[in-house]
């Protein structure tokens, strides 16, 4: 396998249980750079646990997560946190924006945490708000904007650090069809332009249709159906 | 989709020549499958015969057909009735998939595979439509959305069915008629089939009956 074919991020035979309840039972997948992959499956199938393991938020009980040449599952916590801040971006179902900060400050926050000076961080944040078509909410706090606008701000925040991988967990779960569609169009469009891979956890087929391919998780195991004439 | 009623709707908007009707129809509703001229003129002949359109004028020209068609009052009534009437939802795909799942279970195959392959095919089409939407105008987007929502409904059914496969297998087994249901079965006796695939017990039991699918779907 050449370097180009090496996956950017890979999970190999992941096992994870919460108490006596198994969440992952041998889940494996590989994601290439710049690829948008939908992880689908019914509620409780283990898809969110899989995302959390891939992102280094949860440590698997067994199996390995590899990001480029490094084994995430074996890294010390501080190193994993640094990797998450520098290389990964996150979008959750409910934006999880900091309520005390303005939308602009929310988007600038990851840059500020990485040591970027305020003026520069806010300049770049403003660019991303424009790219996500929500310039008009820059000065508002998250409590005062609509769900769709809040999610676009969250997408801008995920992209502002130019991450290599964006993890999106049900990013449109709290939105109506039209807003959900706009968020998906902007999220995948911006990620593709930036060359970032996207791991998109969703149970909605119309959302999954924005991905390049889908992986189905059922009972903690991954299944990928590759059709013959692809 | 009814070509005749679509023509009537277009003619209600304004009188047109046959070739013009074809061009507008193909552009708006053709979806890559243009009408044949034969279809256009046979449809117009039918509408003319039933008094729904009339010839509004004939122009001299090189082509074989230079008639301009206009809608009649009866035609307008027909369009109004057609637009007010809901279309029958198409349930044939589900019927086919349902039959495949039941037959999969009855023959001891992995019915989840049937559903997985169908899901992958549905999602492949949904990806194509989503890309087409991104490149298209508002009309394209609305037409693609219609298809996407319908495909999504199919997928919900696939998911629900996948979650109920065990239940379905049990139901198939429990609703299987006893062997004496038919004269041939009575003669054959209650022996289990031999040499078949390693079917799940439910599937094997269900395979012994002939009318399982009918009973479950009733």
TrEMBL record, chain A:
Residues 9-228 form the ABC transporter domain. Keywords: ATP-binding, Nucleotide-binding, Transport. GO terms for molecular function: ATP binding. Pfam families: ABC_tran. It comes from the Bacteria. InterPro entries: AAA+_ATPase, ABC_transporter-like_ATP-bd, ABC_transpr_LolD-like, MacB-like_ATP-bd, P-loop_NTPase. PROSITE patterns: ABC_TRANSPORTER_2. PANTHER family: ABC TRANSPORTER RELATED, IMPORT ATP-BINDING PROTEIN. This is ABC transporter ATP-binding protein. It comes from Plantactinospora mayteni.
From TrEMBL, chain B:
SUPFAM superfamilies: Winged helix' DNA-binding domain (SSF46785). Residues 176-218 are annotated as: Disordered. Residues 176-209 have a biased composition (Low complexity). InterPro entries: Tscrpt_reg_PadR_N, WH-like_DNA-bd_sf, WH_DNA-bd_sf. It comes from the Bacteria. Residues 8-77 form the Transcription regulator PadR N-terminal domain. This is PadR family transcriptional regulator. It comes from Plantactinospora mayteni.
